Amino acid sequence: MVDLLSLNPPRFFAALLPVASAVLLTVMVNIPLSLAYGLFPAPMLALAAIYFWALVRPDLMPPGAVLIIGLLEDLLSGGPPGLWASGFVAAYALADRQREILAGLSGAAALIGFAAATLLAAMMAYVLTWVVYHQWPALAPLLLACVITVALYPLIALPLAWTHRRVVGAMRGEV
Amino acid sequence: MAWLGGARPARGRSAFGTRASVAVCVVLSIAIAVFGKAEAPMFDAARASLSDVTAPALLGVRAPLVAVGRWFDSMSTMFSVYRENIALRQENAELRKWQDVALSLENRLKRYESLLNTAPDPAPPAVTARVIGESNRPFGKTMILNAGTEQGVRKGQAVSDDRGLIGRIYLTGQRTSWVILLTDVNSRVPVLIEPSQRRAILAGDGTLAPVLDLDLGAGAAHAGDRVVSTGDGGLLPAGLPVGVIMGEGNELRVSLYAASAASDYVRVLDYLVPPPPSDPAATAPAIGAPKPPQAAVAAERPPPARPAGVIRPTPALPTAPAGAAAVEEDR
């Protein structure tokens, strides 16, 4: 784990970028706008950032931060507390357990890896909804949200990879 | 395509420590989900405070995007304006006939009510609020309004647009309130099917057309039948249009009249239910006691706080479905 307090200001802010990017995506997705007239559910973009940083810089995306990002998602999305927090942490656990395999994937295989993490997060939230409310919600909107999230992953991963190479990753030896 | 992966992770971390902290977070998050329902008021208070603080920003962000959306809409309708115009002319001619019928029936109804000395249903006072946000998530379909407790909005009040019922207020801040839409997975609303007068529960399941739960009550329910709110359980005003039944067999759904995604302004209906008489002997005036003046009665009227679980006194109607009283606490 990185000792943030021991870093100088530029490195300190660079070390915060992974968590900040996930928080920013959480806020962006939850700006409550119905751009598609309610036809499409909002994607889980924060999960893309969590997955990406969990693979390439897990020291800058600790599980505690993932839990807090998930709770923020629950708070902003108007849903019950803990559902997406559990889903995000479950996806993080998958990335943590299979890091060597998932981080080595590229192209379409990387998309499949992210799809597996997204599906795990969604299923975790789905099962917990049943545990808490004793009813199965419709599966179709959830799967649609997963498909949209996976489809948008390259758009999120591209700037994150740039940030990793130019800002965060460049300091890997010191941060 | 290294940006899609292929990057090597940083090393040198304590694998056991990380695994342990991941396991702790997994357990903690599940505990929050399972036991968080009991602590929902705390979470809701944080949510209401957040929407109160961010309301001006939400309004500012939403306005230009709504304008862009409308511009795209107008562009798409330009190509079908001629065909739509012909269809609207035909529909207008049909509606004029129905308008004559409706006016005639309205006059007749007024005469009957006058003859029978019927007390008319009071129109519930309403607060018109602007929609400043919507959330369309698989486990939550909500709407944020720019009216809260300062404007008299309270938990449980019905929210409708100019077409029909949208949902109910489930959370109020000082200047904002959150609406649980009829399509939300947690929404349960007692409804009445016309013309059979069968009672049912409209249950959201995350799709655009909520499910009609017909386990309670008896009577016919067919595709094309109209669905309105009942007022059972004192939750909603009776007779609010909700939608039309669609589907066949046991899986009946309701196509909603209201278009929550296209609504900019909505009405929050203040449905006042008379409080139950706690002690009839204490509240009944003594024989021969002077009748209090009307103004004094109005001044003594309790504040418009709706007691939970109170059944609206509608003796002509059948009893409410058993699930209706539980609807208030579905969030």
What can you see in these coordinates?
The complex is a heterodimer of chains A (175) and B (331). With 175 residues, chain A is mainly alpha-helical. Chain A has seven helices and no strands. In chain A, α3 (63-77) runs antiparallel to α4. The longest helix of chain A has 30 residues, at 139-168. Chain A is globular and about 50 Å long. Chain B is an alpha+beta fold and 331 residues long. Chain B has two domains: 42-116, no CATH class; 126-271 and 315-329, Thrombin, subunit H, CATH 2.40.10. In chain B, 32% of the residues lie in helices and 21% in strands. Chain B contains five helices and twelve strands. Chain B starts with 14 loop residues before the first helix and ends in a 31-residue tail after the last helix. Chains A and B meet through α3, α4, α5, α6 and α7 of A and α1, α2, β1 and β2 of B.
In short:
Chain A is mainly α.
| Mean residue pLDDT of chain A | 83
What is the SS-derived class of chain A?
Answer: mainly alpha
Mean pLDDT of chain B: 74
End-to-end separation of chain B in angstroms reads: 45 Å
What characterizes the major β-sheet of chain B? Answer: 6 strands, antiparallel, barrel
Cα Rg of chain B: 25 Å
**What's the β-strand tally of chain A?**
0
- State the name of the first-level CATH class of the largest domain in chain B: Mainly Beta
Domain module count of chain A: 1
Break the fold down into its secondary structure elements and pairings:
The complex is a heterodimer of chains A (175) and B (331).
Chain A: H1 9-29, H2 45-56, H3 63-77, H4 83-97, H5 99-103, H6 108-133, H7 139-168
Helix pairs in contact in A: 1-2, 1-3, 1-7, 2-4, 2-7, 3-4, 4-6, 6-7
Chain B: H1 15-35, H2 40-78, H3 81-116, E1 126-137, E2 140-145, E3 158-160, E4 165-172, E5 177-181, E6 188-194, E7 198-203, E8 211-213, E9 226-229, E10 241-246, E11 253-256, E12 265-269, H4 280-283, H5 294-300
Antiparallel strand pairs in B: 1-2, 1-12, 2-5, 3-4, 3-12, 4-5, 6-7, 6-9, 7-8, 9-10, 10-11
